[in-house]
Amino acid sequence: MQAYQFSMSKILDWREDLEEAAQKEVKSVEVKLIKEQQQLETLLRDSRKIKSDNLFKTDIDSVKRHSLYKDLLDDKIIQQKNRIHQVEIELEAVREKLKSANKDKRMMIKLEEKERLVHTEAEKKEEQKQLDEISTLQFGRNLALNPNLSI
């Protein structure tokens, strides 16, 4: 018999490529989330600093500028939290996509295992058939050479 070749190997390769692309996408979004969280930390740090600096200002103009800057930072913090939330949603979606791609690939691998098992069983049957045939021929030769043999 010929060597085993999975009939859907191209589909399996394609699904492996999809899974690999999904893994890269998950990593990319995770990096994006980390950057957004770092940006939020920077904004929060700046906000705390401005709030503590504001306590020592006595000039009305400085207090007013600090207040406006503090309000601006608070708005940026809210926007950043919203961005983080959006990236978390995106991350959940790409993780779901990865999970689906992984499931599809595993399904193809199971199918390949079953097909390989069927192929192996067919090879064993063919080999057994050939061995039986050889045994029958050899018995026939022995019987022809020695007609006194009984069955």
Provide a count of the helices.
Answer: 2
Q: Provide mean pLDDT, rounded.
A: 88
Give the number of DSSP strands.
Answer: 0
Described by the principal axes of the CA atoms, the overall outline is rod-shaped
Description:
This protein has helices at residues 9-54, 60-145. By secondary structure, the protein is mostly helical. The model has no long low-confidence stretch (mean pLDDT 88).
Summarize the structure.
The chain contains two helices and no strands. It is mostly helical and 151 residues long. It is rod-shaped, with a radius of gyration of 36 Å.
Core attributes:
2 helices, 151 residues, mainly alpha, single chain
Describe the protein's topology.
Blueprint: H1 9-54, H2 60-145
Helix pairs in contact: 1-2
